[in-house]
Amino acid sequence: MLTKPHSNNKMDVHFSHHYGENIELSEEKQKASWNHKYSGGIAFSSQPLRPNSKLKLDLTGTGHAYVGIIKRDPASVTNMRKALTSDVIVATEVKVHKRLGAVNIVSDTKDGKDCISFESYNGTKTVDINSEVWLFLYIKFGDMIAVLHSETIQDRCFHHVTGCNIRCLDEDRRSVKLLVENPAAVCCLNKKLKPGHSVTFETKAITENRNKPSRCHIKLGIINLDPSELKSRDPESFQVDSKVACPTRWNIVQIFSKENIDGELKLYLTHTGELYFSHDSGIEGTHKCHLNDTSSGISIILDLFRAEASVTDYHHEESDECEEKDYDYVRPEVEISETIKRKLRISDKQHEKESSSSDRSSSDSDYLEMKDVSDSHKTFSPNCKISPRLTRCGMYRKDQSSSNVQECK
Where is this region: Disordered (predicted)? Predict the structure, then answer.
């Protein structure tokens, strides 16, 4: 007897309450969105800003940063999060994308008052001071590199006290960047994806004034730990300043960048431990789950950067006892995509020829064989077969003009 897919109430499958601090979930946990809160990318000047002195901060790459001052010695800062909200004064925000964003910092006296002027493409902002202050830099996200310039050697380097996500690029401590460009931005499904099960997401970039951001992505990842176990073994993926000596990292399967981010993403886990993925953008492929054990399922992880994802569908087989030779069941409400039809090259003539060999039996090894094209794109090999399980779960679909999807030559 042929096993048909069973559609779960999608409310049973949603995002876990274990998620990164730079992620926001909807009330029903069906939608996860990137929402920056903290990066740990804090740096200070090594010396207080001297009267009548000039500094220049060059920002290159792509990212967002705040520049300002702190009114206490950075060496006395023990809580960076608290200092960010209580001890610093932000003078300007710099947004850089593949160009130089320079900030000139001038310590001066105006109308008998000491002040610091910050000159950037945003204009000039002047901050009055009445005590010693240090330059403050907070890189929010991105691959931005900050380089400090000064007329005097002692003023042209960053302080040895930094946030947990900052690294220096040279021995003189003149240049810094984020260690992790998009920290603590992961979300996981609340249940493992088990063999024979499929899940569908709707993914899209978060627009700003109806425009896509210059950079955004969704990283698809897997691990055989459940979300709570992953959080305990790799806390940094969830909390920026939570670290362990030897973290257990999750595996990246595919990265969907700006031009491939909007659309529907379908995932299906086979009984042989292969994860198939198909996105409306045309990216599709397979990933062999080289994990210790996939029989109990795998955790699906999404790393979001200026993007969001919603759980829209979930299917599973009612029974594992399937007649692999029966290719007739296809979800009637969906059609095979043009991309897959073009690659499979299925014709009615081929089907008639294949139907004459009705005694041909299929086995669990009849899954798609895939050929790697690159790390980002995979395509079907010239000779491939489709398991009926994939068809039943809606990953690979029946053309209405053809009666069955069996094999391509």
Answer: 346-388
